[in-house]
Amino acid sequence: MKFKFYNISFTQFLKIIILCIGIIIIFINYNEKILLEVNLLILGLIWTFLILISANSLILLILLMEIHGIIAFTLTGIKENSSLSKEAMIKFFILGVIAAAFMGFGISIIYFILGSVNINEISLLIHDSNFINLALYLKILFIIGTIFFISGFFFKLAIVPFHFWIGDIYQGAPLGIVFFFATIPVICYVYLFSKIIFLFNIHIIISILILSICYGTYMSIYQTNLIRLIGYSAIIHISYALLGTVEGNSLGLSSGYLYIIGYCFLNISLFIIIIILKNNKLIDQLYLIEILDFLKILKPNLLLSCISASIFFSMAGIPPLSGFFMKMYVYNSLGVSYNYIILIILLFVGVINAIYYIRLIRLVYFNSELNVSVDNIKMLNFIGLIILTIMFIFNVFFIIIHMFFLMQIFSLI
Question: Model pTM?
Answer without folding.
Answer: 0.85
